């Protein structure tokens, strides 16, 4: 052997061994369940058996201590069966986030696509977008799992209705309307959970899950910390009526239509009973809505039953109440610590623990966790290249473009014309700070560019001053520098609003005004700028910017919320007319005077007898800064009704035998409404009808437009909403062109409300269908 050959051999030998060594040391799943040769012969590893058979078999093999060790988000290993530990708690609200222990960016994957905060994507009113975001996050989740840096079970989406503008987590939700929240939840969950293989969705494989999504927080949860109230012991007093037509619909949809595999019960009590002990509500989800999956408590929400709420007299009773109500797993260690003694004291039985384990293992089985080596499974190919991919980052950019809302645009101040802007001044503490882009539950974004970074790409001569040292803006000491650059610039953009120091988990706001001296900053700049100022607002919660709305020195207002990692680019594209804005506010913006309403008051409906103005566009009767659905475009749209019925007869769907009863019950009076319970079984479908509209773009720019169809019901019982969204559709219309849009209306769902005992009823008489300025009357008759 000559020297050269020897050297080559040695080198290749070294190379070979080091590759082997790398492979073994970096295998993220050295011990997967059902690993051959010792652990693959258990019946629970047999993929020919059904999920139920496999779960039953696994539970039957466990000792009581082993069972109890599974009742925490951090489930212990069961070494004798070859089952490694499992972390149930991963987060993915708008991209993979490391708020839970399941996701870690400390490894070969150090970032993931950060989509806009949910309230921004919601403002796009685009179901396709929502579904695609869910699917993209799922691909990144599987890829991270393969890399050993994430779990398979995620605690998103947050589908509580954004009831009060001060709520620190309103930003995490799809807004205030139950229909929008429901549809967002369904699209996200389907996109996230559905099994995809070479981009083809397996329709016949309902049971298998790509990842598991969780509808949270069940239920009537939307207060963090306000006044003397804290989420850990807040008792939400909710009427049956509000429960049925505001708080519950998103959860029912998430389960029934989205087929979510997890439900999380919340910290708060609902009408005196802690949510995680509400057996009636949790069982309704399983029995009536067909929930198949596991129920987790929010973190330590079983502990709070006893420790904070004093609802039980002992820890054991708290554990027993939760398990008996239907909770399968506790985020935290409380159940692991107290279940044994709860069993010993006869508070709960081993059979009830078995039920919990069956639900838990069934979800793990559906995820393929017991199907063998993850390196050989369906998703084995997903890896680093699937995270922060150009398509995902483009989708994040698209979501921000579609969700950003133009609130004011006097005299077509925007868009700016690139070649006519010689210099820009950007002012505001958020304008050059990456940490404010994503809102809560943000992981490590793929790119780190601020608004300022992006605007510089459009206009080289762009200067920046923070104006305030931070968002709280307690001092005007730094106004001078900002005023100076504003005076010297052709156009001025002030970025004001909120960040997570003002609104976040465990923190509600007390004011709706801009924080600290921010308003003074805006007006000081507006006073010296050559041209009207462009005001950009950040934050998930509404702010009272009446002063800016009415000030002619402020030409335009743009809400960007928390636009995610590509938000700066999306904003720049919109300001310079490369993208025509079409987002619309998914929540009402109330004036500061709304803060006299107690945040703890859960009533949706207005009550004039006690000066209560009601909540959300459906019931609120007071003045508003910007209404639900506000959003301008650089072009104009015009609607026409193409077809819609004027009369709908309901007699056919009421069994003959009930006709007399219904009429008798009402005596002489005319029948005012029908209860859904009075309808023939499955008759709702036959009542469905279509309405068709045309939308013309009468302006000079192509653009997308969100059609929002409302119904106004006859006021034949108490608690009828002012109006109610019954359909929405985002359509793209080229300049001077027209498109058609069709809505399918299900009267049982869309033309109904809950009566004061929480029963769904359809009011009889004239319902107005309202689209923009158009109004179409439809008579419901019996
Ligand atoms: C798996 O289950 C099927 C169906 O019951 C059975 O026929 C087969 O023998 C089982 N395989 C193993 C390896 O036990
Ligand atoms: C990151 O991982 C390494 C290796 O596993 C570990 O030593 C280090 O403590 C981790 N760092 C953090 C911040 O978790
Ligand atoms: C908080 O409690 C104090 C003392 O009981 C009471 O004076 C105050 O009005 C309460 N605040 C709110 C917002 O309920
Ligand atoms: C707690 O103990 C008190 C006093 O013994 C009793 O009145 C009450 O019913 C108990 N509460 C529960 C939930 O068992
Ligand atoms: C960005 O904002 C965060 C949160 O307000 C703050 O902690 C941080 O100091 C800011 N960074 C810069 C560079 O101003
Ligand atoms: C809805 O979102 C999808 C995905 O981003 C996009 O392709 C489509 O153009 C959007 N529709 C409209 C009308 O903007």
Automatic annotation (TrEMBL):
One of its GO terms (molecular function) is hydrolase activity, hydrolyzing O-glycosyl compounds. Residues 1-21 form the signal peptide. Residues 705-775 form the Fibronectin type III-like domain. The keyword Transmembrane helix does not apply. It is found in: Secreted. The keyword Hydrolase applies. GO terms for cellular component: extracellular region. SMART domains: Fn3_like. Keywords: Glycoprotein, Glycosidase, Hydrolase, Secreted, Signal. Belongs to the glycosyl hydrolase 3 family. This is Fibronectin type III-like domain-containing protein. It comes from Eruca vesicaria subsp. sativa.
């Amino acid at each position: 052997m000559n020297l050269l050959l020897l050297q080559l051999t040695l080198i290749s030998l070294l190379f070979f061994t080091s590759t082997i060594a790398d492979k073994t040391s970096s295998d993220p799943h050295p011990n997967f369940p059902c690993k051959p040769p010792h652990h693959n012969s258990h019946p629970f590893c047999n993929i020919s058996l059904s999920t139920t058979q496999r779960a039953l078999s696994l539970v039957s093999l466990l000792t009581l201590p082993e069972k109890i060790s599974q009742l925490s988000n951090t489930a212990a290993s069961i070494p004798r069966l070859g089952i490694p530990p499992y972390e149930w708690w991963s987060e993915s609200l708008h991209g993979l986030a490391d708020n839970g222990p399941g996701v870690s960016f400390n490894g070969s994957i150090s970032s993931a696509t950060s989509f806009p905060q949910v309230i921004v994507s919601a403002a796009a009113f685009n179901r396709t977008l929502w579904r695609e975001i869910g699917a993209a996050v799922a691909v990144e989740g599987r890829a991270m799992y393969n890399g050993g840096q994430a779990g398979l079970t995620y605690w998103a989406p947050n589908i509580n209705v954004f009831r009060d503008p001060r709520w620190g987590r309103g930003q995490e939700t799809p807004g205030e309307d139950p229909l929008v929240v429901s549809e967002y939840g369904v699209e996200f969950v389907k996109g996230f959970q559905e099994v995809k293989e070479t981009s083809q969705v397996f329709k016949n494989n309902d049971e298998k899950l790509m990842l598991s999504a969780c509808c949270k927080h069940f239920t009537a949860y939307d207060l963090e910390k306000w006044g003397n109230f804290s989420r850990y012991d807040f008792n939400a007093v909710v009427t049956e009526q509000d429960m049925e037509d505001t708080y519950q619909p998103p959860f029912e949809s998430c389960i029934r239509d989205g087929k979510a595999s997890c439900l999380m019960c919340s910290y708060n009590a609902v009408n005196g009973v802690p949510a995680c002990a509400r057996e009636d509500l949790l069982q309704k989800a399983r029995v009536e809505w067909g929930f198949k999956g596991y129920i987790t408590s929010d973190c330590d929400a079983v502990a709070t039953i006893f420790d904070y709420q004093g609802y039980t007299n002992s820890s054991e009773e708290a554990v027993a109440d939760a398990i008996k109500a239907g909770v399968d797993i506790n985020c935290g260690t409380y159940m692991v610590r107290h279940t044994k003694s709860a069993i010993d004291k006869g508070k709960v039985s081993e059979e009830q623990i078995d039920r919990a384990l069956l639900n838990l293992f069934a979800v793990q089985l559906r995820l393929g966790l017991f199907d063998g080596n993850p390196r050989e499974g369906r998703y084995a190919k997903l890896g680093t290249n699937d995270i922060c991919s150009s398509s995902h980052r483009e989708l994040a950019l698209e979501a921000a473009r579609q969700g950003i809302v133009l609130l004011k645009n006097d005299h077509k101040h925007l868009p700016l014309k690139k070649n006519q802007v010689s210099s820009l001044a950007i002012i505001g503490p958020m304008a050059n700070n990456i940490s404010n882009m994503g809102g809560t539950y943000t992981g490590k974004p793929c790119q780190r560019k601020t608004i300022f970074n992006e605007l510089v790409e459009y206009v080289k001569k762009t200067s920046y001053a923070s104006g305030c040292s931070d968002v709280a803006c307690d001092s005007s000491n730094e106004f001078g520098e900002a005023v100076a650059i504003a005076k010297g610039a052709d156009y001025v953009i002030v970025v004001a609003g909120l960040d997570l120091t003002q609104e976040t988990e465990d923190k509600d706001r007390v004011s709706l005004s801009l924080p600290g001296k921010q308003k003074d900053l805006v007006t000081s700049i507006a006073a010296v700028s050559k041209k009207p100022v462009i005001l950009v607002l950040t934050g998930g919660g509404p702010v009272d910017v009446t002063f800016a709305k009415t000030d002619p020195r402020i030409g335009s207002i743009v809400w960007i919320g928390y636009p995610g990692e590509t938000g700066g680019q999306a904003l720049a594209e919109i300001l310079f007319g490369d993208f025509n804005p079409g987002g619309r506010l998914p929540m009402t913006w109330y004036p500061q005077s709304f803060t006299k309403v107690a945040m703890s008051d859960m009533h949706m409906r207005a009550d004039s007898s006690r000066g209560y103005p009601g909540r959300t566009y459906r019931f609120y009767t007071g003045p508003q800064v910007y209404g639900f659905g506000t959003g301008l475009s650089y072009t104009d749209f015009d609607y026409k009704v193409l077809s819609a019925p004027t009369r709908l007869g309901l007699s056919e769907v009421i069994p003959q035998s009930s006709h007399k009863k219904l009429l008798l019950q009402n005596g002489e009076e005319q029948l005012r409404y029908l209860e859904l319970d009075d309808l023939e079984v499955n008759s709702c479908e036959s009542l469905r009808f279509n309405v068709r509209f045309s939308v013309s773009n009468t302006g000079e720019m192509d653009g997308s437009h969100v059609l929002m169809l409302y119904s106004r019901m006859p006021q034949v019982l108490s608690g009828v909403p002012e109006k109610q969204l019954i359909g929405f559709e985002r359509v793209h219309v080229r300049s001077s062109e027209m498109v058609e849009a069709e809505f399918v209306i299900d009267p049982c769902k869309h033309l109904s409300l809950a009566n004061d005992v929480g029963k769904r009823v359809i009011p009889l008489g004239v319902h107005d269908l309202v689209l923009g300025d158009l109004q179409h009357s439809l008579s419901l008759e019996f």
